[in-house]
Every structure is written in C-alpha cells, then in structure tokens.
Design a protein that fits this description.
Blueprint lengths: L38 E6 L2 E5 L13 E4 L13 E5 L12 E5 H12 L14 E5 L4 H12 L5 E4 L6 H12 L8 E4 L2 E4 L3 H11 L4
Length: about 210
C-alpha cells in the first residue's frame, strides 16, 4: 500500500548553523535499488518536490535528496533539527546508497550553494554582485528587477519563499550592513543594502559602481 506523504512535515526550519549533525544517527533503513517505499524529497529552483522512486528524480538533482521512512516509530526518528540526506547518483560497494545525517540549516545552505554556484572563471565580476531578494507575488520586486534590467545591471534573483537559504542569506546580509528589514525587496548591491523599490537609492548605487576608482 502506498504511504501517505505529508508535505507539511517536509518544510525546512531555521536552526543554529551546523554541518554533519553531531552524533550523526544512521537511519534504521537502507536505500537500495530504485529507493521505492521511502519518502524522497528533491529540490530545484522552483522549490521542493516529492518522489516515489529514484527514477522520478532528475539526474541533476540526485546528489542532495532528503529521505525518510514514514513508518518509523517516534523513538527511531531524528529530532526536528536534523534530516537524513541520500546521494542517489551511484550506489556504494554493496549496492546501498550513501545516507548521512545533517542539520536542517546545513542542508538548506548546501542546497542554496548548489542552486547558485560561483560564476565561471572569466565571467564579468559584476554578474553576481547584485542580488534581489523577493517573492513571486511582490510587485515592488518585479519593479526593481525591471528597473535594473533597463539600466543594464546584471543581477541574481532569489525568491525567499522558494529558494532554500535565500531568506537566511538576506537577513545575514542586512544584519552585516546594520540595516533593518521589514519587507521585500531587499537588494544587496555590491555590499550595500537597499530596502524596497527605492529608485533614487538604486540610481546612486549604480552611479557609484560605474565611477572609476
């Protein structure tokens, strides 16, 4: 019988940053073959997706997949700050896929890094120097992006609701700059934080960025 998948239980929370969870707990199950019968959650630019088997996950997204067994007893489960993560690209010797325990925060950060890799060598330095943190429903965010395109300013768009790690990155950038945020968009313009669609502030930032040092 197919197991009922609870999407609500999959939402990533914000916890203290970390890497491999201290005292990592091996799962009381193995991931083999097509991994059918387990809960698999993979991520792309559009957010999270559930899959019933390895075959349903795009090859490019198989390196970082959340895995769980919904039939585990409460005593067998991880605490809320940790997740099991499986690499479904190639099985290890013996036929099982490698599963590790990570903190949710570290997993979210790794997903963000995979979704927004460093610009290739030789790419213009400014191509990743402007980041617009926003959301799909935000009209001010769209206005900001349109304005930057009109001014030929390359930027990276990060949706704080659909892009794992985006909200935390936005808050950390604002905190480092000493700027309070109470809405979106938040624009990281080469280290300068601009909140809201502030045309004048954007114009000044663009002018400074194009002034020879």
């Amino acid at each position: 019988m197919l197991r009922v998948l609870s999407i609500c239980a999959l939402l990533l929370g914000c916890t203290d940053p970390g890497g491999e969870a201290a005292g990592s707990t091996a799962p009381p199950f193995e991931v083999r073959g097509d991994a059918s019968g387990l809960l698999l959650v993979w991520f792309d630019e559009e957010g999270q997706h559930t899959a019933a088997s390895r075959a349903e996950i795009p090859e490019a997204r198989r390196a970082l997949v959340r895995v769980d067994d919904l039939e585990l007893s409460p005593e067998q489960r991880l605490d809320a700050s940790q997740v099991w993560v499986v690499d479904l690209r190639e099985p290890e010797e013996g036929g099982a896929y490698a599963v590790r325990t990570m903190t949710r925060e570290a997993f979210e950060a790794e997903l963000a890094s995979a979704a927004h890799p460093e610009p290739p060598e030789g790419e213009a330095a400014g191509d990743a120097d402007v980041i617009v943190y926003g959301a799909s429903w935000c009209s001010a965010c769209r206005s900001t992006e349109s304005f930057l395109r009109e001014r030929n300013v390359p930027f990276v768009e990060r949706d704080i609701e659909r892009d794992p790690g985006a909200r935390q990155a936005m808050l950390e950038a604002a905190r480092a700059a000493g700027v309070r945020t109470n809405g979106i968009p938040v624009i990281d313009f080469r280290g300068e934080i601009i909140t809201g669609f502030d045309r004048a502030a954007l114009e000044r930032a663009i002018a400074r960025s194009r002034t020879p040092i």
